[in-house]
Amino acid sequence: MNAIKDFFNPENIYFVELMTLTTTAVVLLILRALKSKLLSQPQNKIFGATLYSAYLPAKTFLVALMLWHSLKLINQFWVLKLGLSEFPVISLLIALHMSWFGFRVVNTLEFAFLDSSETGRLDQTAIIGVAKVCRLLLMVILAIVAFDLLGLDASGLIALGSVSGAALAFASKDLVSNWFGGIMLYMDKPFKVGDWICSPDREIEGTVEYIGWRISKIRTFDMRPLYVPNAMFNNIAVQNPSRMTHRRIKETIGVRYDDIKQVNSIVEDIKAYLTNSTLIAQDQTIIVSFNGFGTSSLNILVYCMTVTTSWVTFHEHKHIVLLAIADIVEQHGGEFAFPTQTLHLNPEPEISR
């Protein structure tokens, strides 16, 4: 009995290790009891994602802490002289598990926002970009803390970097330019994942499937993947038809020269039809006018915007509008012109006998 009391005596060299093991075991049991509550937290909220992400790193840290203090206790009890106090193991464990915890929070929020149908002001591209930046910052912070805890002198790394900096910069200039190009895509957001983009400068057209740090993946309309280095977007013009507000109908209707007297009535009826159609955007420009004399037709310009931006629906609406215009021309007794030629034959002179 006295031996046990002496073992737990505060003046005993084993007391600190025993109390640390006991406290750690109690905290581990409490954490285990709260497991279901922690893992049931809503992952699309910062507080809930923090609690959800904390369980596994906390449990692993406590287990590692118990193992470390058990090893120290064994070292003291049997006087193994392993020199365990020379290593900043606790600090390294804290740094590693805090970094792991940070990665889990970022990943949890990223997956939750991407799976959610309501992402607020953040689109899919912005979510992925913010998550990548956060992970990069965590890695940099972990490296700095690790160097400091291990007592490594950073001046050697600086000297090495200055010597090899020029060669490294030359060798990785394309990689760096692509990386900065990816940052500009995340900041300026000329397009996002799911947008249809095209470039008049290069043969680039399709739907954006992925925006990475180095390349962006575009699925062309023949279903082939197109991988474009991000640096290229700094030097080319990019159109984003996905952000258009309307689609345009611009057609030249040619009627016969014989229908010159009906042209004014045809123009007025076409304009009346367009201004009363629910398929046409009434807040946009509508032009219907006699536009000029063609080689074999009287040209009528029809210019308007549809209310839809869907490619398939636009062609369905355009189909309806053009057939309605054809009916109007027919109602006025007009006909559509097509290239014709008139051949004048001189009568042959009669031969006298």
What's the short version?
With 353 residues, the chain is α+β, with helices and mostly antiparallel strands. The protein contains ten helices and seven strands.
Model description:
- The chain has 353 residues and is α+β, with helices and mostly antiparallel strands.
- The protein folds into three domains: 2-152, no CATH class; 173-242, SH3 type barrels (Roll); 245-331, Alpha-Beta Plaits (2-Layer Sandwich).
- The protein has helices at 2-7, 15-33, 35-39, 46-77, 89-115, 124-149, 154-171, 173-188, 263-275, 311-331; strands spanning 196-199, 204-211, 215-219, 225-229, 247-255, 287-293, 298-306.
- A hairpin with a 4-residue loop joins strand 1 (196-199) and strand 2.
- Helix 5 packs antiparallel against helix 6 (124-149) and helix 9 (263-275) runs antiparallel to helix 10.
- The N and C termini lie far apart (160 Å).
- Mean pLDDT is 81; it is low at 117-122.
Features:
single chain; 353 residues; alpha+beta; SH3 type barrels; Alpha-Beta Plaits; four-stranded antiparallel sheet; three-stranded antiparallel sheet; 10 helices; 7 strands; 52% helix; elongated
Radius of gyration: 38 Å
The secondary-structure class comes to alpha+beta
Total domains: 3
Please give the largest β-sheet. Answer: 4 strands, antiparallel
Major β-sheet strand ordering: 1-2-3-4
> Helix content range of the residues, please?
40-55%
Q: What string gives the helices and strands in order?
A: HHHHHHHHEEEEEHEEH
Principal-axis shape: elongated
How far do the termini sit from each other? 160 Å
pLDDT average, as an integer? 81
